[in-house]
Amino acid sequence: MAEKIIELGASDVLSMLPDRAPEAHKGCFGKNLLLCGSRGYTGAAYLAAMGALRSGAGLVYLGVPESIYAIEAVKLNEPVVFPLPDEGGMLSGSAVPAILEKLGKMDAVLVGCGMGRSAGTLAVLEAVLKNAVCPVVLDADGINAVSGHKDLLRGRTAPTILTPHDGEFVRLGGTLDTDRMDAAGMLARNLGCVVVLKGHRTWITDGYTFYRNTTGNPGMAVGGSGDMLAGMIVSLLGQGIKPLEAAACGVWLHGAAGDLCEKELGQYGMLPTDMLEALPRLMK
Q1: CA 102 to chain centroid
Q2: Exposure of 132 by Cβ count < 10 A (0-12 exposed, 13-18 middle, 19+ buried)?
Q3: If you average pLDDT over residues 183-210, what whole number do you get?
Q4: What does pTM read for this prediction?
């Protein structure tokens, strides 16, 4: 049974956002490492990085396979994009030393958006989960990689946030034969993680406190929407918001941006890039 069920409103979310001191600099608003993208999935890395920046991140370091570095470097101006060794268009295990060199300086890390499934993805994921002392967000192929190695999650002392859709949720060991809230809570307790079970009325939980999201619409059901959300959550973590609240705020803001786009554009043609443009208007 849930100990506490919460539905956020706009005032709740704004009250959770950290104040920005007049004398602050970019280092005060979070250093975020994003390991995303692969050949054919350059958009996932772009949307994750821009989702992080549009939700207030001070510094975003985006590590991508060397074979797509030029594409990302041209598309992205604000993030620090850097190339990593790859194999077959996906990160290789030889990228681990360069990743570990940056890892200790980060406030939050995102792994998975558009990375693809490979031995290299698993090697990178394992290195991050074993060595990161900051919160880690796993999305998409980060979740797929860890689904067969759940001991990596249970062994962590720092927070981990998982953002599965239904298929990924089942691969992690969750069951959708029961109430979605209960299912999300059970998996969160089993893995010792915050779980964001995406879908209509997304549930966000650490297994004990439950947030039920009330924003969003079917126009958001388009490729890239989840990558943007993952970037938003890692950004809020990097700014110092506690993991459960960062995930809940990110989901609410993501859905609210979608609702704003629905009003202005309608559901049929709205895109994650439109939601990126709408997001700052919700965080004033």
Answers
A1: 19
A2: buried
A3: 97
A4: 0.98
